[in-house]
Amino acid sequence: MDVNQYLGIFLEEAREHLQTLNRCLLDLEHDPNDLHVLDEIFRSAHTIKGMSATMGYAEIAELTHEMENVLDMLRKGTLKAHADIIDTLFQCVDRLEQLVEGVANGHTEGVVDVSELSKKLASIAKGEATAPVEARQAEAPAAAAAEDLIELNETEDELVKSALGQGMRVHALKIVIRQGTLLKSVRAYMVMKAFDEMGDVIKTEPLVEDLEKDNFGNEFSVVLVTDLELDKVRETVLSIAEIDTVTAQPYGAPASTGKNPPEPLALAVEEKTAGGEAPGAAPAAEVKKAASAAPAAAPDKKAKAQQLLRVDAEKLDSLLNLVGELVINKTRLQQIGLSNQLLELTEAIEQMDRVTTDLQSVVMKLRMVPVSQVFNRFPRMIRDLSHGLGKEINLVIQGEETELDRTVIDEIGDPLVHLLRNSIDHGIEKPADRVAAGKNPVGELRLIARHEGNNVLLMVSDDGKGLKPEVIKKKALEKGLVTKAELEAMDTNEVMRLIFLPGFSTAETVTDVSGRGVGMDAVRSKIEALGGLLELESTTGQGTRVKIRLPLTLAIIQALLVRICEETYAIPLGSIDSTINITPEDIRTIQQEEVILLRGQIIPLVRLGRKLGVTGAADFSPEQELFVVIVQAGDHRIGLLVDALVGQQEIVIKSLGKLLTGIKQIAGATILGDGQVVLILDVNALG
Amino acid sequence: MSDVVTAGDELKLIVFKLGPEEYGLDILRVQEIKRLMKITRVPSTPQFIKGVINLRGSVLPVIDLRTRLELTENELTDAARIIVVLVNENIVGFIVDEVVEVTTMSRENVESVNSLSNGISAEYFSGIAKAENRLFILLNPENIVNTTQA
Questions:
Q1: Chain A partners of B41 at a C-beta cutoff of 8 Å?
Q2: Is residue A498 part of a domain?
Q3: ipTM above 0.95, yes or no
Q4: Residue A365 CA from chain centroid, whole number
Q5: Do A242 and A119 have their domain in common?
Q6: Can you list the alpha helix ranges (DSSP code H) found in A465-566?
Q7: What pLDDT score was predicted for residue A143?
Q8: Does A300 reside within a domain?
């Protein structure tokens, strides 16, 4: 079989399961007795094993197989999950990650050595194993079948009884489809079709609709009324491809089948499983049982399987581009309708406007990804870092379901890692110091995401020692980033912001965790490149909080068009505070800088025409009416002086291309309805 | 070194004018030729970058070849065109006074620019093509687009 066509699916699913493993192992570390978590770990490990065996990645399969043995013993309670075992399991996950990435890069063998870990796992398994492996496997399906019978309601019970009364046979069957089967629903359909030919299906678990929609794990159960023998039924089902095992049991009045009542007939048929798969198949049946017994453990997994569709991100991008074009053309039609006063056209355009707006919001939603995609990897990182530094840290994540544009998600990971590392390394103290300061020895690190208006707010806060303004001042002076006079003029907030300057690092010693002096500067420029804002609050001794405000989307925005002489520019509405009319008399000067007063606040005035070098940007006559757009530039407001306000409109952000990257003041370009290219101002760079 | 690459010994050139001089660009580099359209000026860019235009929904920069090659400026007439060229995976427009023709010539007739001594920086050119009593100056688009050179 050529497996290459499944490589993408394999990688994606393997990564997902590794993610799950990491998350669950962390949970397990907190509560070693949580059986649901163990089950989930087992399921993920097993799925990876099945997938990799099918794809022919022996090393991954071998390692997961050894993991399974240990996990199974943990689950059975024959082994206690102490720190050593969990650490070993973490190492396994790391190794698996390397192996999977190796596969992604085209190396199927020998990327890393797994033999040592395998041995370690094996010795863990041997050292404390109480039940022989074979006995365990023989037990497993029996237990599974006994407990996993479908429960019938009264009507169904009646049906069974009357069927039995008529001398028919009633069988309860549990069908396990092979792990990693791509078209489970098709297999399920084939099984159901076979049943329909043999008799009547009274009940399925889950419902037939769910089976058709692929909305089930790897197994399902059926109660069948037929006149055929159990063996015959099982044989028929097993003849269907990719059916792993069929566990069957006669139902109801046992006398009619002539079997011994207290001991239900249970058969795990493994003839269809290939080679090394066999030992894993029986536990798999068990795992699934556990899953259905504890639906709360993995409901999200099942719900997802039903609706998700994997689409190449490039296709979404081109869809977005097309919608962008549509928006541009719609705007153009609107202008034609307005300037020609065509009532009918205007009406038609209004309809179209509604549709395009909906279309646009749907496409934007398609691109939205929950931040959990980024947040997921943090718990593990925090664990490793805090262990390494001898600190105890409790990471609290909130709002991970908050969604952001995919492009933002891709970029936000690194800055967040920087911030979290800073908090762990410089912020949160060692347990002894914390106790001395009268704090809980366990430091708290919060990572919060939530919506705020048209923005998404990401917040990283810790209850560590906070920033010390004096230390910052000293450092900044030492590094020559500021002068003494400048420092004296600064308030505490401004001092805090000094840490965002390039070349600043507060750690006494540079560790591998942080402190290379590039961190905060890099964080700030990244966030600003994404059109976001960064705020920092810190109280000495109580902790630090960094807020990141990000726009929901980067592709289509509302903007205000302004005119300066003959040139038109777009200002993103998100950064506009207000627009006001002034006359030249309202302009005052402070230290040769032009300012205006707005509700008692002094706001620096920027003459856009001069700043952007517009030819013909002339001085104005004293009684001329002037327009000022008040915008938020970084942490302060400025007024942009323009000749006229053209209007508010939706614009599609386009890049200026490689040749023109790095122009300050300009964030991009857009094309108006009339085909004219208009530049979008980067107000942060105008301040 | 030469950017003029065509199969065999044949060379197909787009011939255009800047003032009285005739220039040539390898036709394989040229995507299309547009009439002059409204160009949006971009602040804080070198003089020779005239601005950006809208080419069927994408934004591309336009270079004024006269300014770039340090020729005297003149009013653009109706004959002026924007030649859209692919350079280092970027699409760029060149403003020229007039597009004359497409001509085919033998590679043997191309001389290297070392023999050129008219004072203009030679790095913008990849050679000179001679045909009967005409001379075509062949452009080196990579160096023309390169903004790191003044």
A1: 567, 614
A2: yes
A3: no
A4: 15
A5: no
A6: 469-478, 484-488, 492-497, 519-529
A7: 37
A8: no
Given A529, A551, A573, the domain boundary residue is: A551
pLDDT in tens, A338-371: 888 888 888 888 898 889 888 877 887 787 888 8
Say whether both A388 and A531 belong to one domain.
yes
* CATH level 3 topology of B10-145: OB fold (Dihydrolipoamide Acetyltransferase, E2P) (2.40.50)
Question: Within this chain, do residues A126 and A192 fall inside the same structural domain, yes or no?
Answer: no
Min Cα separation A677/chain B (Å): 6
Q: Are residues A259 and A155 in the same domain?
A: yes
Q: Which of A422, A429, A650, A684 is catalytic?
A: A422
Mean of the per-residue pLDDT values for chain A?
A: 76
The closest alpha carbon to A28, from A45, A16, A14, A13, belongs to: A45
- Whether A68 is catalytic is yes
Helix H or strand E segment including A652:
strand A644-652
Q: Could you report the per-residue pLDDT of A563-593, keeping only the tens digit for each?
A: 998 899 999 888 899 999 988 888 888 888 8
Residues A666, B43: C-beta atoms closer than 8 Å: yes
Contact residues for A687 (Cβ-Cβ < 8 A; gap 6+): A604, A606, A633, A634, A636, A638
Last residue within a domain, chosen from A526, A551, A576: A551
Does A401 participate in catalysis according to the annotation?
Answer: no
Q: Are residues A386 and A397 in the same domain?
A: yes
* Number of structural domains in chain A: 5
pLDDT digits over A29-84, tens only?
888 778 888 888 888 888 888 888 777 788 888 888 888 888 888 877 777 777 78
Q: Find which of A660, A679, A681 to mutate to test the B interface (most B CBs within 10 Å of its CB).
A: A660
Total number of residues shown for chain B: 150
Domain ranges in chain B? 10-145
Choose among B54, B89, B92: nearest Cβ to A677: B54
Domain that holds residue A173: 139-293
Q: How far apart are CA A263 and CA A285, in angstroms?
A: 19
Cα B126 from Cα B113, distance rounded (Å) = 6
Contact A677 B147 (CB under 8 A): no
**CATH code: domain of residue A270:** 3.30.70.1110
Placement of tokens 């080679």 in the chain: A275
Touching B: A residues 567-586, CB under 8 Å: 567
CB-closest option in A659, A666, A675 to B90: A659
DSSP A16: H
Candidates B88, B60, B98, B102; CA nearest to B146 is B88
> Does residue A119 sit in the same domain as residue A161?
no
CA A634, A636, A637: angle at the middle one, nearest 5?
Answer: 110
A-chain residues near B60 (CB < 8 A) = 657
Residue A246 buriedness (CB in 10 A; 0-12 / 13-18 / 19+)? buried
Instruction: Give yes or no: residues A218 and A289 share one domain.
Output: yes
Which residues of chain B neighbour A613 with C-beta distances below 8 Å?
Answer: 43-44
CATH number at residue A394: 3.30.565.10
d(CA B82, CA B67): 14
B59 near A671, Cβ under 8 Å?
A: yes
From the list A655, A657, A671, the residue facing B57 with the nearest CB is A671
Locate the chain B residue with the closest alpha carbon to A325. Answer: B57
Q: Which one has a higher pLDDT value, A478 or A608?
A: A608
Is residue A307 situated within a structural domain? no
Can you tell me whether residue A342 is helix, strand or coil? coil
Q: What is the pLDDT of residue A343?
A: 85
CATH number at residue A109: 1.20.120.160
**Is residue A118 domain-shared with residue A40, that is, in the same domain?**
yes
Distance to chain A for B9, nearest Cα, Å: 33
Amino acid identity of residue A537, one-letter, is E
A308 domain residue, yes or no: no
Q: What is the DSSP letter of B106?
A: E
Q: Residue A636 catalytic?
A: no
Are B60 and A666 in contact (CB < 8 Å)? no
Q: How many residues does chain A have?
A: 687
